[in-house]
Amino acid sequence: MSATILSIEVAVFTTVAKTAVDSHGHRHPSGAHEVHEALLTITDTDGAAGRVLGQPDHVRESVLDRYLRPALLGQDPFARERLWAALARRQRGAGGSLTDRALGLADCALWDLAGRRLGLPVWKLLGGARERISAYGSTMCGDEIPGGLATPDDFAAFARALVDRGYRAVKLHTWMPPIPRAPSVDRDIEACAAVRDAVGPGVDLMLDAYHWYSRTEALRLGRALQELDYYWFEEPMDEASIASYRWLADRLEIPVIGPETSGGKNFTRAEWASTGACDILRTGVTDVGGITPAVRTLHLAEAFNMDCEVHGNGSANLALAGSCLNYRWYERGLLHPHVDFDEPPPHLHTIVDAMDDDGFVTLPPQPGLGDDFDLDYIKAHTIASW
Ligand code: MG
């Protein structure tokens, strides 16, 4: 008899972070401080385990007891499509307590388990489309930190440094609340112009602007970006209004990219692609509920002759680069002049997305997702488990 899922466990542990989020959820540099993370482990009856990191709140004990364990325990761990559908259908009656994040963490752990059992990296299981991918440097949001990202000149100097480090593309996140005087279309344009000036014409540049601009503000900003030969324009408006994005994409030459935060998984992405609300589609394991629906989104976009960019970093988003050639840029970040992105946190031996001097990230050779966990550290720092 083939193996079945024996246990689903969460260990909450303390680790050290050197960044923190502000009141609007934007990440900035901070002093080293203790934070809590969660390791979700799914183990089968043959002893194979799949592991993935998440936030403790996304995999609370009640989420495991009410949804993940009833749907997954005793099931074939390789039946990912069936198990994903079983979880996704439980969401309708769950009143919001079974999130796409939880669904995604379970799905990613099952992919990790499959890779480890088969002795293959997940990106190869997904199709082995390539062995490395170009990375873009994705900055943190603008701030008020001296020598940080406080002025258009700061963004220009940092973009230049990123290009010198090897990046072939840079994405700005400009000033957003609660930073004073944010948002400002004029200041966004000023920063984007300063960056173009600093890196010259041969570097692809993108902007992720304030997310609640009006249509007319978004159009003015988009027109400025296309004058500056930017590569894409991301989430200037609330993404719940697909009609607004269609209105914007109809009026701009620069590719409009989305959605990032819209619910509805791959189904919503089909609406964006089929109605012309974007020129480049988006997905991501934390946005759509795991690797399984993210791969669907990538192939959906492919069939519309569209690129599909993946939001966010990490091993599971990186593995998607093996599934399709229309995922052009891996988002490496968030980056800031005061933060060493290449330094692993204490619970990892190495980072999964090291970048070479030519701006490429090589897909990891290890079986599974390729995260290099320090399991001894995690065990020694575990403060709760369920
Ligand atoms: Mg974004």
Extended strand count: 15
Counting copies of identical and different chains, the oligomeric state is: single chain
Strand content: 15-25%
CATH architecture of the largest domain: Alpha-Beta Barrel
Task: Write down the overall geometry.
Answer: globular
Broad CATH class of the largest domain: Alpha Beta
The CATH topology of the largest domain is TIM Barrel
Determine the CATH superfamily of the largest domain.
Answer: Enolase-like C-terminal domain
Radius of gyration: 21 Å
Q: What structural class do you assign from the helix and strand content?
A: alpha/beta
Characterize the structure shown.
With 386 residues, the protein is an alpha/beta fold. It has 2 domains: 5-119 and 375-385, Enolase-like, N-terminal domain (Enolase-like, domain 1, 2-Layer Sandwich); 124-362, TIM Barrel, CATH 3.20.20.120. The chain is built from 13 helices and 15 strands. It has helices spanning 61-72, 80-91, 100-118, 122-125, 152-165, 185-199, 215-227, 242-251, 265-275, 285-288, 291-303, 315-319, 375-380; strands spanning 5-21, 27-44, 49-54, 132-139, 169-173, 204-208, 232-234, 256-258, 280-283, 308-310, 329-335, 348-350, 360-362, 372-373, 382-385. Strands 4, 5, 6, 7, 8, 9, 10, 11 and 13 form a 9-stranded mixed sheet that branches. α1 crosses α2, α2 runs antiparallel to α3 and α5 packs parallel to α6 (185-199). The protein starts with a strand and ends with a strand. 47% of the residues are buried. The protein binds magnesium ion (MG). Magnesium ion (MG) binds at residues 208, 234-235, 260.
